[in-house]
Design brief:
Blueprint lengths: L15 E4 L5 H10 L9 H10 L3 E7 L5 E12 L2 E12 L8 H15 L5 E3 L6 H9 L8
Parallel strand pairs: 4-5
Antiparallel strand pairs: 1-2, 2-3, 3-4
Length: 148
């Protein structure tokens, strides 16, 4: 099962953005390890499959010309007592080899389109760790950083 990406989200250079597929699981596992996450391979595919099937969640990937996933975004509908429901970015990962090529822009664009289709007006990304050079592209796309 693949999530849909609106055709308004353009392809950049040799990268395409599309919904996640089962064939992407090993690439997503590899990408998570690039960030230093200590994940176990056993059961990882089941976690991704559960997210794909769960209403209110979506995963999109950016793939290269060989259809290898070089980045992914996981977005879901979040609920809190103090705000209306909004789309929340759980993870945004781009391979070192694919950075500075517009991959994150494609992924965030897909998340924005998905959020609109879900009837949501806000996209929120909470991060406990984020180096500033990775946040700069988010502000260049019109997103505002909210800091205390």
């Amino acid at each position: 099962m693949e999530a849909e990406v609106n055709s308004k989200v353009p392809a950049l250079a040799s990268l395409i953005c599309r919904g996640v597929a089962v064939r992407d699981i090993s690439d997503i596992f590899r990408l998570c390890h690039q960030l230093g996450y200590e994940l176990r391979q056993i059961g990882f595919g089941d976690k991704i499959a559960h997210i794909i099937e769960r209403p209110g969640d979506a995963i999109f990937v950016v793939a290269d010309t060989e259809d290898t996933a070089v980045g992914f975004i996981h977005v879901y509908i979040g609920h809190a007592v103090e705000i209306k429901a909004c789309a929340q970015i759980q993870a945004l990962v781009v391979a070192c080899s694919a950075r500075r090529q517009g991959a994150a822009k494609l992924l965030v664009g897909a998340a924005e389109e998905w959020a609109r289709a879900e009837g949501l007006q806000w996209l929120q990304w909470l991060s406990l760790y984020c180096s500033s050079y990775r946040v700069l592209p988010m502000t260049s796309m019109g997103h505002k950083a909210l800091t205390p």
